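Technical annex, item 7. During the second reporting period the consortium partners agreed on a shared format for inverse folding records so that results from different sites could be compared directly. Each record opens with the tokenized structure and is followed by the designed sequence. A conforming record, contributed by the partner at site C, is shown below for reference.
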């Protein structure tokens, strides 16, 4: 649920450091007059991310790898005109001339593409509940990574929230005898993406454009090879498939832009609550629309995660008010 792609994604509250900087510049604990716009655009962004499984299900017959490669290439061609129209061309060129920034964005590109691939694979292979679990625990993973790599101190409620989240994951693991690899891959790939992006001072829109540019070269070559060998989907199945593959760019960029608008207008604690819209939508879709099994082990695990997120959210509100 972007972010990021956002983010792309897909979706759901990456680059929390940007919110913190915005909080400092606002220097207030009250919402601005534009907060309604921020709330509407934020909800729209996370609703798009949360309902995106419906979109991916439409082309589930296309291999996940091919789908993600199209998403990368078409996202770049969609983002580039936006960069030009918004007058960010010089920022893009400056980033491309910076070897350190390029090296870091290459690494973050690998993390975000891994996140996108695993997410699309999970959705198209009936693992939507695992995907939602991954994005639920992502904020808690961010806290853990902050402690390990940024030497941030844990607060008591954060410790309790992490213990409950770990307990939920372990319960699911021992009950089914299967490690929730999809959930943890989504959470940690997105967590490391946000963590590493802290190192380079590049706006999210410019950063995502550079990341998709870096990945578009190998992705474009591979897609061309698929087309020449008549093994791909684009231009070889039907117009419906072609339009949906091209439309992955819109699904990537639009919620990211909405999220950027929202983040400038809302407090960090508000954004923290809104971000749970995306995994909640995935959770509801998985159970009620796609009929994925929801056994007692999952009930216990999700309950522990939800309680952990309540504790985390309460802690965040108290901390930022202080």
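Designed sequence (site C submission):
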């Amino acid at each position: 649920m972007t972010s990021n792609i956002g983010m792309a994604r897909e979706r759901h509250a990456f680059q929390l450091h940007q919110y913190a900087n915005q909080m400092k510049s606002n220097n207030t604990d009250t919402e601005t007059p534009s907060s309604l716009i921020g709330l509407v655009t934020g909800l729209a962004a996370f609703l798009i991310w949360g309902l995106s499984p419906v979109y991916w299900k439409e082309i589930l017959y296309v291999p996940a790898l091919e789908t993600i490669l199209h998403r990368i290439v078409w996202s770049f061609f969609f983002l580039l005109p936006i960069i030009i129209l918004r007058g960010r061309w010089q920022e893009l060129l400056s980033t491309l001339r910076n070897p350190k920034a390029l090296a870091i964005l290459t690494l973050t590109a690998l993390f975000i593409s891994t996140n996108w691939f695993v997410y699309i694979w999970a959705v198209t292979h009936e693992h939507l509940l695992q995907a939602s679990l991954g994005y639920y625990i992502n904020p808690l993973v961010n806290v853990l990574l902050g402690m390990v790599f940024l030497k941030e101190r844990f607060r008591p409620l954060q410790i309790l929230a992490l213990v409950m989240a770990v307990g939920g994951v372990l319960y699911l693991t021992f009950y089914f005898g299967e490690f929730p690899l999809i959930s943890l891959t989504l959470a940690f790939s997105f967590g490391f993406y946000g963590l590493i992006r802290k190192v380079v001072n590049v706006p999210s829109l410019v950063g995502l454009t550079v990341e998709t540019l870096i990945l578009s070269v190998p992705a474009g070559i591979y897609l061309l090879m698929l087309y020449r060998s008549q093994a791909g989907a684009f231009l070889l199945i039907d117009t419906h498939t072609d339009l949906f593959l091209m439309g992955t760019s819109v699904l990537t960029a639009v919620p990211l832009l909405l999220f950027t608008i929202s983040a400038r207008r809302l407090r960090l604690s508000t954004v923290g609550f809104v971000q749970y819209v995306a995994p909640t939508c995935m959770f509801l879709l998985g159970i009620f629309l796609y009929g994925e099994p929801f056994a007692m082990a999952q009930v216990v695990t999700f309950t522990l995660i939800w309680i952990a997120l309540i504790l985390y959210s309460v802690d965040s509100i108290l901390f930022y008010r202080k």
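DSSP finds 13 helices and no strands in the chain. The two ends are 28 Å apart (CA to CA). All partners now use this format for quarterly exchanges.
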